[in-house]
Amino acid sequence: MSEPNSAELLLVEDNPQDLELALLALREANPATRIHIARDGAEALEFIFCQGPYATRQITDTPKVILLDLKLPKIDGLDVLKRIKGDPRTKMIPIVVLTSSREQRDVVESYQLGVNSYIVKPVNFERFTDAVRNLGLYWQNLNQPPKVTD
Amino acid sequence: MKPSLPLNEEAERFVEGGVDTTIEDRRREAVLKTGALQNAILNSANFSSIATDEKGVIQIFNIGAERMLGYAAAEVLNKITPADISDPQELIERAEALSAELGTLITPGFEALVFKASRGIEDRYELTYIRKDGSRFPAIVSVTALRDERDAIIGYLLIGTDNSARKQAEEALAKAGALQSAIFNSAYFSCIATDEKGVIQLFNVGAERMLGYVASDVVNKITPANLHDPQEVITRASALSVEFGTPIAPGFDALVFKASRGIEDIYELTKVRKDGSRFPAIISVTALRDARDEVIGYLLIGTDNSARKRAEEALHKATVLQDETVRQLNADLEQRVNERTAQLKIANNELEAFSYSVSHDLRTPLRAIDGFSQVVLDKFGPQISDDGRRYLQTIRSGAQKMGELIDDLLTFARLNRQELSRRPFDTGALVRAALEELGFPWPDRKVEVRIGELPASSGDPALLKQVWLNLLSNALKYTRKRELAVVEIGCTTTNDAEAYFVRDNGTGFDMRYADKLFGVFQRFHRAEDYEGTGVGLAIVQRIVHRHGGRIWADSAVDHGSTFYFTLGMETKP
Q1: B130 is a domain residue
Q2: What is the reported pLDDT for A87?
Q3: From the CA of B354, how many Å to the nearest CA of chain A?
Q4: Is the Cβ pair B364, A15 closer than 8 Å?
């Protein structure tokens, strides 16, 4: 379901159930969205920075939005956030943290690193789908990102 | 006593009375003059003149005698002899002594007082006179026999002086002499006297004992400077040179310079014994001066300070030890505090990691349970029976309930870690905000909210809003079945502080279970009657306690409840 080299939305999620529920919600909102899935922080960075299996990608071919979980294998979500927001080529990509954590320090640190939005995944499925659908719609369709130039 | 001038005048008058200048006249004049002198002597108050007849009966008793002995002349003249006013025991002793001396028996009476004089021997002796009041005093008595032209004894003259003062002085002198000699011969301090150049002239027993020299080793040979630590003498000399602004040689001068200037000088120096061993000494120096105030020598009195020094050192050591002990204890304490703090930090970090993990990981499976139940309902709803759909709904509500429990527990756990940010705030505004957050004025219910006087308080407004939210939502929850719910909010004064309260007319609870009211997961009602996680009041209590306050409740089943809380003394408005 994911395009190897180009995507409108990068979903970084390690938990298969959360991943499936998120995809259900996103598809329901817009079945045509090109979604790429990264299962850990390292893979997310390889995709964005066109390394490893994604070496043929163009770094300018950025997704419209990244949905990022914080608790991730290999490279933590906050580190992913730091790397992307710390690089002039990628810092304009909108990133939405979508996590289970209500911990204040995660929220504060995410915003300090330049996150565009921080959403706590609700247990209730309707609210979860609402949240995912809304932010998917918002960042893909309504938000007008600035043109990234090198 | 009369001054001499009138006596002289009297004598002159006599002289003027006889103008004739023959030899006889001159002789008479001389006799008169002598008589005047005798008169003066006789009338002196400073010595007693007692004249007797040849048998000893008193014939003259002058003013001095009256004053000294307390008798009036009339009381003694022609009545008693001087033996009657003398110590009888001394008379006996004197009679015995004279009898032995002169080889003839002398009676212990008046004879004993005048015997020598009667034999023409000059006699001056010491005797105790007894006054009229019985008191005694030592007297020096000088006795003369009075003779007529034929040299026959016609009486005696006893002239006495009061010897008390001299006696006392003598005694004092003897005592002082004994004292001085005792001091000088004491073995406990060294007395070293030198001539004005410092050469030792006297070296007492104490000095011998302390320093190990015998007097002959040092007298006329060395100065006290040779008995001291040379380095200390040099140090003292340079210190004194600076103090007095004049060069002082590091020798005997350094030891006596201050004393030579008349300055009292006591100092501590190390003395060196004959065998080379040393001891600390306290030395007191005095300049010895002659009648013209010229310095003729010095006296150096020294005491061995070893014992005191040792005591001081022991004391110092003890003090150092004590300081060290205290320091060690403090260090231990500090270390223990640090260790505890570190342990606490670790525990806190673990707790935080735990909460973090709970926050992340426990919710994820719940979301899967709830989410996939819903997916099943969405995708396969028509193929499932009504029971099956109800079961799936039950699974969902169980998962959601657990989500709430986790959220409440995390809130509760976070209360201990969270810093209080205290500041004054408007309680009334906080309460109104809480009511609005809870959906005031609840158009689908009949709720009467009465807000009384609410004094401003100080504390963490965010946390205290949680308190009001929980108490007010409880009040609303447990009045749900009332036709008209009444919620009363106010402040009352209890014995220690202002207590805020929330009162409702709800179902209330049995006060027998009041102790369980604020425990975590404690519920008083069945879940199907009143929803809840059982954490709300535990959160309220923890916040109140963190503010140093107290919370309690008053209730009766079916008669509503009142919850009171204070914010501690220091938060009193």
Answers
A1: yes
A2: 92
A3: 12
A4: yes
